[in-house]
């Protein structure tokens, strides 16, 4: 008899934007030399690339459900943001990232609205300053040079501009198994507001 594993009472959640596939493929192509030069790094899957607006951590499933209607309303009022992937950098010589170009001011404003909405709905979270980026890989604890070298190889990268057209509520399996972290959309909503002319 095959019994299903019961769903966890909590879910690890964040709110994010996701680049379109062709923009991610453009960056993936630019990363080919780094993939070859640093195979020991833990590379994130291209399907999991995202730009976090608010990281909420472990939440009860009921709290996640309560965020869905107000996030849908917020997305319906907002116009798509024009963004790009640009350059590279690292955090603490271990975490490799690509930077974000385009309407970064609009991205900060959107993140502020998302965070205010979360707080208004009684969901506690650590409100860290937004540093817009897309995490690509992590080096192992004993490797202090791979992320630095990979970031340098991306310094000249400038991707095409693309519209961020959806707001994503994302869950992860962090801490729920021995394999790599995987992300999945809990739900996403189109930005339906008019773009300023």
Question: Your description of this structure?
Answer:
The protein is of the alpha+beta class and 197 residues long. 30% of the residues lie in helices and 32% in strands. The chain contains four helices and nine strands, in the order βαββαββαβαβββ. It has helices at 21-37, 61-77, 104-120, 146-153, and strands spanning 10-17, 42-43, 51-60, 81-91, 95-102, 133-138, 162-164, 166-172, 183-190. Strands 2-6-5-4-7 form a five-stranded antiparallel sheet. Strands 3-1-8-9 form a four-stranded antiparallel sheet, with helices on one face. Strand 4 (81-91) and strand 5 (95-102) form a beta hairpin. The longest helix is centred in the first third of the chain and has 17 residues, at 21-37. It is globular. The protein starts with 9 loop residues before the first strand and ends in a 7-residue tail after the last strand.
What is this entry, summarized?
The protein contains four helices and nine strands. The protein is α+β, with helices and mostly antiparallel strands.
Set out the fold topology.
Elements: E1 10-17, H1 21-37, E2 42-43, E3 51-60, H2 61-77, E4 81-91, E5 95-102, H3 104-120, E6 133-138, H4 146-153, E7 162-164, E8 166-172, E9 183-190
Antiparallel strand pairs: 1-3, 1-8, 2-6, 4-5, 4-7, 5-6, 8-9
Helix pairs in contact: 1-4, 2-3
Beta strand count: 9
End-to-end CA span? 61 Å
- Low-pLDDT runs of 5+ residues are 1-6
Class per helix and strand makeup: alpha+beta
From the alpha-carbon coordinates, what is the Rg to the nearest angstrom? 18 Å
What is the residue-mean pLDDT, rounded to a whole number? 90
String of helices and strands: EHEEHEEHEHEEE
Strand fraction equals 25-35%
Shape: globular
Number of helical stretches of at least 4 residues: 4
Q: Order of strands side by side in the largest beta sheet?
A: 2-6-5-4-7
Percent range for helical residues? 25-40%
Main sheet characteristics: 5 strands, antiparallel
């Amino acid at each position: 008899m095959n019994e299903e594993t019961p769903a966890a009472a909590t879910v690890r959640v964040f709110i994010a934007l996701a680049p379109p596939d062709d923009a991610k493929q453009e960056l993936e192509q630019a990363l080919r030399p780094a993939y070859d030069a640093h195979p020991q790094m833990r590379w994130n899957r291209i399907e999991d690339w995202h730009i976090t607006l608010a990281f909420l951590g472990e939440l009860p499933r009921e709290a996640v459900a309560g965020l869905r209607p107000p996030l849908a309303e917020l997305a319906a009022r907002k116009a798509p943001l024009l963004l790009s992937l640009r350059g590279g950098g690292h955090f603490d010589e271990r975490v490799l990232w690509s930077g974000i170009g385009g309407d970064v001011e609009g991205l900060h404003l959107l993140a502020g609205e998302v965070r205010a909405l979360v707080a208004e709905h009684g969901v506690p979270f650590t409100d860290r300053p937004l540093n817009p980026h897309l995490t690509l890989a992590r080096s192992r604890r004993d490797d202090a040079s791979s992320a630095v070298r990979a970031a340098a190889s991306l310094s000249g990268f400038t991707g095409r501009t693309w519209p961020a057209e959806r707001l994503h509520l994302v869950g992860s399996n962090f801490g729920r198994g021995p394999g790599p972290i995987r992300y999945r959309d809990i739900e996403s909503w189109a930005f339906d507001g008019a773009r300023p002319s």
